[in-house]
Amino acid sequence: MKYLFFGGILIAANLSAVSTSAQTLTLSSENVVTILPNSSMTVDGLEFSPSYAFAITGPNTISKSDIPVVVNDNSSINRVYVASTALSGFTGTITFAYADDELNDIPEADLVLETETAEGIWTNHPATVDKTNNTLSYAFADALEFTRITASSADASLTIVEIAANDFVKVYPNPTTDKLIIVSKNLQKSILYNVSGQKVLESDRNELNVSELPTGVYVLHTTNNQNQLSTFKIIKK
Predict the structure, then answer these.
(1) What is the mean pLDDT of residues 30-48?
(2) Between 192 and 74, residue with greater pLDDT
(3) Which domains does the chain have, with CATH numbers?
(4) How many C-beta atoms surround the C-beta of residue 203 within 10 A?
(5) Does 92 have pLDDT greater than 60?
(6) Strands 80-97 and 60-65
(7) What is the pLDDT of residues 121-135, one digit of tens each?
(8) pTM, full prediction
(9) Of 46, 181, 224, 227, which has the fewest CB atoms closer than 10 Å, so is most exposed?
């Protein structure tokens, strides 16, 4: 194992196991790139400037795609960064560069940053738009996990919408102030996530106590004994 230091980036790796270019960052197994505070690392227009040391561990590849993300009738711009393994624990500023011809008819003033968790949950962030330099910047105060990051319109974001109740499970009341009742004959597990994709509650019972949680939007995943997954957007008042 070799340790190399470049302008605030510490690489603990076999040189042959780390590949960097303008387009991608590739780490093989057991290799780590750590970005130190007061420094930054850019992968083809996606810049990480952490508040605390941030480690990207292998195996992992960060690459850029020009295929937009489409959720229901909403679409992102034609630039999407993809991590083959979820990046987690990032706090600090992410700056997202874009080209004018990638906007997919979305006005620059309407752009928001979008991140997707490993569970497939999209969250939009009201980033600062720099029209001169064609960038979006957002400072993440809470630890962020994401597998994909892109931009979309604030009026047509990729953020998850509630899936209608189905034959497997029903959830009420929603909105709620203190508890969620989960009606399911074969409930195996319920997990509640906040909008940053962090797990805040988990239970195998038919009732979740959410009274101590901050007000806001959450995402509930339930599974039954046949591994059927249901997803609901939950509003905590």
Answers:
(1) 90
(2) 192
(3) 2-153 (no CATH), 170-236 (2.60.40.10)
(4) 16
(5) yes
(6) antiparallel
(7) 788 899 999 999 999
(8) 0.66
(9) 227
Using the structure block, give the residue that is written with the tokens 């999209």. 122
- Rounded CA-CA distance 84/207 in Å is 35
Structure tokens at 98: 């874009």
Average confidence (pLDDT) over 11-16: 50
* Span 179-190, pLDDT tens digits: 999 888 788 889
How far, CA to CA in Å, does 229 sit from each of 112, 169, 201? 29, 9, 17
Q: Output b/e per residue, 120-140; b: 16+ Cβ within 10 A.
A: ebbbbbebebeeeebbbbbeb
Q: Are 110 and 155 in contact (CB under 8 A)?
A: yes
Residues 6+ apart with CB under 8 A from 215: 236, 237
| pLDDT: which is higher, 229 or 42 | 42
